[in-house]
Design goal:
mainly beta
Length: 162
C-alpha cells in the first residue's frame, strides 16, 4: 500500500522573499493627509511577494514609513511589471497593501548595444556597461542607453591627436 501524503509533511522550496530597501522608496507627493510613494523593487522580487507584509520592515523603520491610506506605485527591478496599491494598514514592522492593481509592461523593443566585449544593460537604476566575460559592471548608471554607449566607446584607447 502507498502512504497517504500528509499536507504538513510537504514543504515548499522556501524561497527567500527580498525586503524593500528604504533607499529605493521615494516620496512622489505629500499632501496634508496622505502621501504617494514610488518604490523600485530589488532583483528577484515577484508581484506575489507584495502579499507578505514583512517585506516593508526596513521601510517602516525609516523616515518614509507608510501609514494607512498612503498610495504606493511599485516598479519591478527589470521593469516587466508595475503595481499600484493603497496601504490598508501599517505599523513599525510591516505594511499591508490593499489589493494591488498589477500591470505587465511590454518587453523592450530596441536592442541594447553590444560589441562582443562589453554590452549595455539596464540594471534597475539606469543603463550600465557590463564586461561580458565576467559580468562586471564597468560604469555608473546613466539616464539613458545613448550615454551608456558613449561611456562604452570611451573605454577603448584612442590615438593621440584624434
Amino acid at each position: 500500500m502507498t502512504k497517504a501524503l500528509d499536507p504538513a509533511s510537504l514543504k515548499s522550496a522556501d524561497r527567500h522573499v527580498p525586503e524593500i530597501d528604504p533607499a529605493r522608496v521615494q516620496v512622489q507627493a505629500a499632501g496634508q493627509i496622505t502621501r504617494e510613494y514610488f518604490v523600485r523593487c530589488p532583483a528577484g522580487m515577484v508581484a506575489d511577494d507584495m502579499k507578505e507584509p514583512s517585506i516593508w520592515r526596513k521601510v517602516q523603520a525609516s523616515r518614509n514609513a507608510f501609514k494607512k491610506f498612503d498610495r504606493v506605485f511599485i516598479v519591478s527591478f527589470d521593469e516587466t511589471w508595475i503595481a499600484e496599491a493603497i496601504v490598508a494598514g501599517a505599523d513599525n514592522k510591516s505594511a499591508v497593501l490593499g489589493k494591488p492593481r498589477i500591470e505587465t509592461l511590454p518587453t523592450r523593443y530596441d536592442k541594447l548595444f553590444s560589441d562582443g566585449t562589453y554590452k549595455v544593460e539596464f540594471n534597475g537604476i539606469g543603463f550600465v556597461v557590463i564586461r561580458i566575460s565576467d559580468g562586471h559592471t564597468m560604469t555608473q548608471p546613466t539616464a539613458n542607453a545613448a550615454l551608456a554607449e558613449r561611456l562604452l566607446v570611451q573605454m577603448y584607447p584612442a590615438r593621440a591627436g584624434q
